[in-house]
Design a protein that fits this description.
Distance between the termini of chain B: 34 Å
Order of helices and strands of chain A: EHEHEEE
Order of helices and strands of chain B: EHEEEHEEEHEEE
Number of helices of chain A: 2
Number of helices of chain B: 3
Low-confidence stretches of chain A: none
Strand content of chain B: 35-45%
Distance between the termini of chain A: 43 Å
Structural class of chain A: alpha+beta
Oligomer: heterodimer
Radius of gyration of chain B: 16 Å
Mean pLDDT of chain B: 96
Largest interface: A-B, 18 and 31 residues
Number of strands of chain B: 10
Chain lengths: 91, 143
């Protein structure tokens, strides 16, 4: 078990990416979060909501796990990348 | 190769990827920066993206179009700061006949807007700025 992937003892280390307005709300665009296993995307969102600015995140934002759109109850594994996506506005 | 570009888009470059002697119908969609949105005068836009996922998603959309229609489709999207009139997105669909080209082109631009993680921040003539939010009643979020 190395420092980059997990800490053992039932803890998952997840890389969280925030974009656009959500990055502004929390004042950062990338952070590492340790959560207890088993964990879902919702666990990560609950963690974010406890941080400064996090209470302004919407109840059910669009999310992606490892660059694929996911659901709030999508299960996470150690080393996953979770992205919290504001309403899309491409095109 | 990335579908996201930090330099001005060129329709001929995109068309070159799909046009060939077998394709008799070529449909091009060009999305450009408008000078107004939700009743405000827009000065410029800043596009940002979740680049790795955006590339994967645009690739998936182009593959889906290729399986649904007998058409070849290419697309590119700008990121960074764009002025009014600058081209933000280009989709070119080429097929033997026009029906498939129109349908595939329409599909790809609609799916890009619906699925690709790209955001835009509008800067207005009055000095304010806001995040474009198609889900918000005003179309824009200011905080």
């Amino acid at each position: 078990m190395n420092g980059e992937r997990g800490t053992g003892n039932g803890v998952l280390r997840v890389k969280v990416l925030l974009f656009a307005r959500f990055a502004e709300l929390l004042g950062q665009s990338e952070l590492m979060i340790d959560v207890s296993a088993p964990a879902t995307v919702r666990t990560v969102l609950d963690n974010l909501r406890e941080r400064a600015g996090g209470s302004l995140l919407p109840p059910s934002p669009m999310v992606a796990r490892n660059r694929v759109q996911a659901q709030l109850d999508t299960a996470l594994e150690d080393g996953d990348e979770v992205a919290v996506l504001p309403p899309l506005a491409g095109g | 190769m990335s579908y996201l570009k930090e330099t001005p888009l060129d329709v001929r470059t995109v068309a070159h990827q799909v046009v060939s002697a077998e394709q008799g119908g070529v449909v091009t969609f060009i999305g450009a920066v408008r000078n107004h949105h939700a009743g405000r005068e827009v000065l410029r836009l800043e596009y940002s993206a979740y680049g790795e996922m955006a590339d994967l998603e645009i690739g998936r959309i182009l593959e889906e179009a290729a399986t649904r229609w007998p058409a070849k489709v290419a697309a590119e999207h700008r990121v960074g700061t764009l002025e009014v009139g600058d081209v933000a997105v280009i989709v070119v669909a080429a097929s033997a006949h026009r029906e498939a080209a129109f349908d595939a082109c329409r599909f790809v631009i609609e799916e890009i807007k619906r699925r690709v993680p790209i955001w835009k921040r509008e800067h207005y003539v009055d000095g304010t700025a806001g995040w474009v939010d198609p889900t918000a009643p005003a179309g824009v979020s200011f905080h």
